[in-house]
């Protein structure tokens, strides 16, 4: 085959690659979305059921996630990234104190997903959060707290590490009836403690 004949085939092959990558990314994103929902509802969900609900074959799922732990960790990373990225968006759309509460609600949702598969990868996810994302998570909390402090809505003597300790109950969320309401009440208490008190000592 001559070079002239090869060139159109090479161009066609190159033009097809972006579409293939796009399809693969859409499949991956769809699998992650389905897995998030499924894992929230049951810790016993199987990879086969996730593939079926995602509308992809088992081979496609295993190409993206070779085993259950790989999928679980990908779901956690996906959620933590969304959590981190949500902080500036919430601050742009809401007053600082409201933005902080909405962000903590999202943290609670992440905790409930984690709890759904805690038996399988608890150690891995704790290590993932504390090492890979800890700095970014505390950075997001710091941005929310700083905005609240500048607005006079958040007490000046609290930092991101303390807030994480205060909301640690979200990582041990029960799955019994009434837990969501109880968690919301506990978050109300946390928010009450974070509010600035006029005339209070710094």
What does this protein look like?
The structure is a single chain. This protein has 202 residues and is an all-alpha fold. The protein folds into two domains: 1-66, Tetracycline Repressor, domain 2, CATH 1.10.357.10; 72-202, Tetracycline Repressor, domain 2. Helices cover 78% and strands 0% of the residues. Mean pLDDT is 79; it is low at 1-17.
Note the overall shape: elongated
Output the CATH class name of the largest domain. Answer: Mainly Alpha
> What value does the Rg take, in angstroms?
22 Å
CATH superfamily membership of the largest domain, which one?
A: Tetracycline Repressor, domain 2
Strand percentage: under 5%
**Ends distance:** 80 Å
Query: Secondary-structure element sequence?
Result: HHHHHHHH
Query: What is the CATH fold-level name of the largest domain?
Result: Tetracycline Repressor, domain 2
Main sheet, how many strands, which sense, barrel? none
CATH hierarchy: architecture of the largest domain: Orthogonal Bundle
List keywords for this structure.
single chain, 202 residues, mainly alpha, Tetracycline Repressor, domain 2, 2 domains, 78% helix, elongated, disordered N terminus
Topology:
Elements: H1 3-41, H2 47-54, H3 58-64, H4 68-93, H5 96-116, H6 118-150, H7 160-166, H8 179-194
Helix pairs in contact: 1-2, 1-4, 1-5, 4-5, 4-6, 5-6, 5-8, 6-7
């Amino acid at each position: 085959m001559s070079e002239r004949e090869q060139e159109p085939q090479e161009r066609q092959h190159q033009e097809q690659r972006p579409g293939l990558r796009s399809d693969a990314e859409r499949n991956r994103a769809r699998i992650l979305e389905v897995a998030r929902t499924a894992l929230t509802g049951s810790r016993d969900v199987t990879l086969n059921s996730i593939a079926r609900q995602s509308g992809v074959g088992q081979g496609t799922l295993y190409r993206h996630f070779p085993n259950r732990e790989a999928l679980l960790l990908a779901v956690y990373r996906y959620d933590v990234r969304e959590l981190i990225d949500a902080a500036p968006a919430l601050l742009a759309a809401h007053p600082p104190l409201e933005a902080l509460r909405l962000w903590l609600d999202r943290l609670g949702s992440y905790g409930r997903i984690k709890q759904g598969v805690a038996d399988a990868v608890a150690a891995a996810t704790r290590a993932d959060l504390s090492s890979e994302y800890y700095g970014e998570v505390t950075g997001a909390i710091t941005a929310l707290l700083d905005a609240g402090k500048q607005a006079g809505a958040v007490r000046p003597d609290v930092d991101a590490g303390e807030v994480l300790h205060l909301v640690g109950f979200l990582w041990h969320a029960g799955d019994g009836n009434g837990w969501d309401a109880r968690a919301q009440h506990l978050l109300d208490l946390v928010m009450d403690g974070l509010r600035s008190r006029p005339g209070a000592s710094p």
